[in-house]
Recover the amino acids of this structure.
């Protein structure tokens, strides 16, 4: 009889331990769930704030600025020889910084044509190629205008 009583007592202890472990696991799971939900909400709020900040930072030009069209530039590429490129762009500069804007724009247009004739199709393919083209054109325009032009904006680019 003592054996039977010990088995019943041991069974109750086992069920109690299992119930305690279940409560601890449930509490841990609930706590982790609440922590993850709050961290995701914080992350979403942070992303929304960053996007709002980016929208404000997009307008990085203020003050007395002028935007002038360089015009359409059409020329052939260096490689392949039968490929052509058409580029339409504008330049941003501080009003009054250029003594004769029309002459400067003509020089910029000639410089852009000379540069585009040295490019191959592989150099301007894809988003990174377009980014490199923009950077190179900005460097050339800054040199040509002696720093008076802030940026060249590529409006359209067609390669065929």
């Amino acid at each position: 009889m003592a054996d039977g009583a010990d088995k019943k007592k041991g069974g109750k202890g086992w069920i109690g331990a299992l119930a305690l472990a279940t409560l601890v696991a449930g509490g841990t799971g609930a706590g982790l769930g609440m922590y993850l939900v709050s961290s995701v909400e914080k992350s979403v709020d942070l992303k929304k704030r960053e996007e709002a900040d980016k929208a404000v930072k997009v307008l990085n030009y203020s003050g007395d600025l002028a935007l002038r069209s360089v015009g359409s530039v059409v020329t052939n590429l260096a490689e392949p020889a039968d490929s052509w490129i058409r580029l339409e762009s504008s330049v941003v500069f501080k009003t009054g910084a250029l003594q004769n804007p029309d002459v400067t724009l003509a020089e910029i247009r000639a410089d852009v044509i000379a540069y585009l004739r040295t490019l191959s199709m592989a150099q301007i393919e894809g988003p990174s190629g377009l980014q490199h083209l923009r950077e190179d054109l900005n460097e050339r325009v800054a040199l040509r205008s002696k720093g008076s032009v802030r940026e060249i904006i590529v409006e359209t680019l067609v390669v065929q």
Summary: The CA atoms of residues 61 and 92 lie 9 Å apart. The first helix runs from residue 2 to 57. The chain has a mean pLDDT of 85.
